[in-house]
Design goal:
- The complex is a heterodimer of chains A (367) and B (272).
- By secondary structure, chain A is an alpha/beta fold.
- Chain A folds into 2 domains: 6-87, 2-Layer Sandwich (Transcription Regulator spoIIAA); 145-363, no CATH class.
- Chain A has helices at residues 30-35, 54-67, 76-87, 101-139, 146-156, 161-184, 192-230, 233-240, 244-283, 287-297, 300-327, 332-363; strands at residues 6-10, 15-22, 43-45, 49-52, 70-72.
- Chain A starts with 5 loop residues before the first strand and ends with a helix.
- Chain B is an alpha/beta fold.
- Chain B has 2 domains: 1-87 and 177-230, Rossmann fold (3-Layer(aba) Sandwich), CATH 3.40.50; 95-165, no CATH class.
- Helices cover 42% and strands 24% of the residues of chain B.
- In chain B, the strands form 2 sheets. Chain B has a 6-stranded mixed β-sheet with strand order 6-7-8-3-9-10, with helices on both faces. Chain B has a 4-stranded antiparallel β-sheet with strand order 2-1-4-5, covered by helices on one side.
- Chain B starts with 7 loop residues before the first strand and ends with a helix.
- The chains are: A alpha/beta (367), B alpha/beta (272).
- The interface between A and B is medium-sized, with 33 and 36 residues.
Amino acid sequence: MSAMADFSEEQGAGTLRFSGSLTLACIGDLDDRLRAWPGEVKALDLSGIEHIDTVGAWLVHRFADTHGARVEGLDPDSAHLLEQVGNADQPVSVRPEYTNSFSRVVGEIGTAVVESGRTLYGLLGFLGGTTIAFATVIRHPSRFRFNATVHRFEVVGVSALGIIGLMSFLIGIVIAQQGAVQLRQFGAEVLTINLIGRITLRELGVLMTAIMVAGRSGSAFAAQLGTMKLTEEIDAMRTIGVSPMEALVVPRTLATIVLMPLLGFYSSLIAIIGGGLLCWASLHIPPVTFIERIREVVPITDLYVGLVKAPVFGAIIGIAGCFQGMQVESDAEQVGLRTTAAVVQAIFLVIVLDAFFAVFFTWIGWI
Amino acid sequence: MARIKGEPIISVHGLKTSFGDHVIHENLDLEVRRGEILGVVGGSGTGKSVLMRTIIGLQIPDAGEIRVFGEPTIGREETEAIEIRKRWGVLFQGGALFSTLTVAENVEVPLREFYPKLDQNLLDQIAAYKVVMSGLPADAGPKFPAELSGGMKKRAGLARALALDPELLFLDEPTAGLDPISAAAFDELTSSLQKTLGLTVFLITHDLDTLYAICDRVAVLADKRVIGVGTIPELLAMDHPWIQEYFNGPRGRAATATLERDRAREQAGTKD
């Protein structure tokens, strides 16, 4: 192991004699000691050192520079190193300068507002673009990508059956269990069946499915299109004359629009089955009675409410996913950010629209 | 620390690497000597990057022995491996800068990691002169990697690779994707840093001009092993078809011609 870097003053001569290894590993407290050095220095004698690297050279350069001292006793290689390090002595800031926190917060809020306005505007434009693409495909059916669409149907729909079924089954059980516990206090356990039947068909079936599809497929759309944008696949498509809106966005959006009602209905059924099983197990209501009660208490309009909402939610999820994917530019980091944005926007818009639908259906009397 | 020029700094012996059934290297031997710039060439898919990744320990070989600084690198304890890692710097193909940190902060990362006691002030100063030494403009320090061009990213990556004043530098295609002027400047930078800092450089490249301009020796990878190591004239004397095609193909001849023209011009200049 090399000796630690050290220095001592030669009496009266104003010369500092360095020893040891002036390297990063052996630098120790040399920096502090050199900075705290009080006296006049005329020369630095480096003839006694074992080895010097850029860090050592930097310290020597800085000290010699501030004290106006000469550097002596270096072999040609080390002198060259010292010269190179000296040439690199330029003011470089390490971090970007920060403005004060108040103006930064105000600035960030401003940027966020402008950004959300721009996103909303862009999303609206993209909705228009998608509609036009759909119209073109309807007018020229030969341009419809049948294989791509079928593949999307499989990925968005068939592959999601397992996870959506499991989720819905558990949600059904939870609603039934919570409902039973609360309603028991009023001696109205039997109303648990109304609760399960109506809430799953009207709200939860479709809403939970929308959240699941947004997380599964909306994010996948954004990530796929984003990656294709990065690798210039989409630009290549355009130059060949293939419209990415028709080839990529239409099949994906169509898949979510068509499959959301199907998945939502499936989800509601499984949730009702889960609730029914819990009623059987803990409230001792046999399945036959449960199904009969469901048919009595759940109006058919509840099913319509769910099925009307579902394709709209599907469209939102598909368009938000594709829109965010197409916004990716230049940077792999953006794919991650855009994917997150796609899911957040889709779920947010779905819930906002769900509120509007609730008001609307109450207003037209489907309660 | 004795630093004898010419002693082997990396020695690879009987190396075998494979991905599943696909064998990349078999019975590969290579020696890199202290103080030299060794160029590593080979066709696409011959495992140049894999060889580098194996030497620096990112890829575990199936068989063989690798010694760096005379110490085996395979199967070492993490604490011992760190002592070896302190002594080398690696420049990955795309620069591999940490995207959430500025250029100067990127340079500080290895310093902070290996020498946590360094004063922040000194860290900033070291980062500053390393950034300038790597040929970046002074205002690049506080920029984020996303704001840099490809060439600047490579320089920033080089600044980070040099942060610990390594004895050994691995460069993976440093001039790929750079325009000829930037590529020549990068070659010159590598060569000048190598002389100033006394580095040993392990340089993977496709660039014939780089080979001619700065490499002391060249290792050729083909048929799953190193088929030849030596200076370019030594390699040209070998009778392997790939080597012949590589150096005597149209591009190889062009690079030789440029070199000869430069030499002739230099000689003419000295006569005047």
